[in-house]
Write a structure and sequence with these properties.
The protein is α/β, with parallel strands linked by helices. It contains five helices and five strands. The protein has one domain: Glutaredoxin.
Length: 178
């Protein structure tokens, strides 16, 4: 009988965990260049995400919004990389002014000031990588040579951006997430 009860609770816990992950999927339907629907972007309470980031909890934190030309192009490439590595992205839609406040923006600006020039928070898209040991790295925009308001990235640029993102994940030592 005890084994049956234990098995029931184990199955129940697994079901709850699976439901939590699917219910936390970010709504990326407005990212028109993202062709997959089963993506690795999750969303949550903005304050909680900032708290996790400030506590240097391992993960990838993406700040952006769907009508940002650079964000539209970065999201599919980031998705490709994180799906290969079995990672998830904590997504913050900074266009949602009801939740993304000036205080949170200032908090992110202060946090981003610790990065070298070129990786500090000045706008979106902004991706922060936190490794298993708290090692930090950041990525801003797409590529320095790319102007998303003028043209889409070429296949070569997309491949290079994916390489940069992969190398950043490796450099911080971020392990696959369950």
């Amino acid at each position: 009988m005890k084994k049956q009860i234990l098995a029931f609770f184990l199955v129940f816990t697994l079901l709850l965990t699976g439901c939590a992950n699917s219910s936390n999927k970010a709504d990326l339907s407005d990212y028109d260049l993202l062709t997959v629907t089963d993506h690795n972007f999750i969303t949550g309470n903005y304050e909680d995400i900032m708290t996790s980031l400030l506590a240097k909890e391992p993960g990838i934190y993406f700040f952006g919004y769907a009508t940002c030309a650079w964000c539209r192009e970065l999201v599919p490439e980031l998705q490709e990389v994180v799906s290969e590595a079995n990672l998830y992205v904590n997504y913050v839609d900074v266009s949602d002014r009801n939740n993304w406040t000036l205080a949170l923006n200032n908090e992110l600006t202060e946090f981003g000031s610790q990065f070298e020039e070129g990786a500090q928070y000045e706008g979106v898209p902004y991706v922060i990588f936190v490794g298993d040991d708290g090692t930090l790295a950041a990525h801003v925009g797409t590529l320095p040579t790319h102007n998303a308001q003028q043209r889409l990235m070429t296949d070569t640029e997309r491949a290079y951006l994916q390489r940069v993102l992969r190398e950043t994940i490796e450099s911080v030592g971020l392990s696959a997430q369950e």
